[in-house]
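quick q for whoever's on today - can somebody do inverse folding on this one?? i tried earlier but teh output was garbage lol. C-alpha cells:
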C-alpha cells in the first residue's frame, strides 16, 4: 500500500490517509488492480463527485467511459425518441438513457439505452441509483473507439 503522504504513480495524487486510500482506485507498484464491489465503487469520490465524468464497474475494475461524439448522441437520441414514444403510446414499460444498472455485486453498467417492460419497471425504486432491476433490452451505440469487449 502507498504510505500516507506519498505520491501515487498512477494518478499523480498525494494520499493523505488510509481512509482516502481505501476510497480511491489504486494500483500497487506490482501493477495488481484492487477490485471493487458496487458498494465501494459508489463511494469513490471520482464517481460520486463529478457529474460530467462517467464510470462503470466491470468485474470489479473501475472503467472511465470516454466522451461521446455528437454523432453518437444523435443516434442515441433518435433511438431513444422512437423506442420511448412507441413504448409510452403502447404502455409497454419505460425507456431510459445512460442510467446505472447494477448487474451483480461487481458490475455496474451505464448503457446508452435501457428498456424495462411494465411489470419489471413497476418494481424499480425511482429514488435509488443504480437501478437494481435488470432491463429486458439494452442498446449500446458503437463508436469507432469501442473495442468489441466494451460492447459485450
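ok took a stab at it. sequence:
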Amino acid at each position: 500500500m502507498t504510505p500516507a503522504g506519498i505520491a501515487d504513480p498512477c494518478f499523480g495524487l498525494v494520499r493523505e490517509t488510509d481512509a482516502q486510500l481505501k476510497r480511491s482506485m489504486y494500483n500497487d507498484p506490482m501493477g495488481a488492480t484492487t477490485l471493487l464491489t458496487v458498494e465501494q465503487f459508489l463511494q469513490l469520490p471520482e464517481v460520486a463527485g463529478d457529474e460530467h465524468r462517467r464510470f462503470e464497474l466491470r468485474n470489479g475494475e473501475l472503467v472511465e467511459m470516454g466522451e461521446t461524439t455528437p454523432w453518437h448522441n444523435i443516434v442515441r437520441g433518435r433511438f431513444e425518441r422512437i423506442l420511448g414514444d412507441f413504448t409510452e403510446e403502447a404502455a409497454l414499460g419505460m425507456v431510459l438513457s445512460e442510467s446505472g444498472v447494477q448487474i451483480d455485486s461487481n458490475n455496474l453498467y451505464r448503457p446508452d439505452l435501457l428498456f424495462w417492460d411494465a411489470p419489471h419497471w413497476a418494481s424499480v425504486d425511482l429514488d435509488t441509483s443504480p437501478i437494481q432491476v435488470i432491463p429486458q433490452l439494452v442498446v449500446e451505440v458503437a463508436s469507432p473507439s469501442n473495442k468489441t469487449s466494451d460492447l459485450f
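fwiw Confidence is low (pLDDT under 50) at residues 1-30. also The radius of gyration is 18 Å. so keep that in mind when u check it
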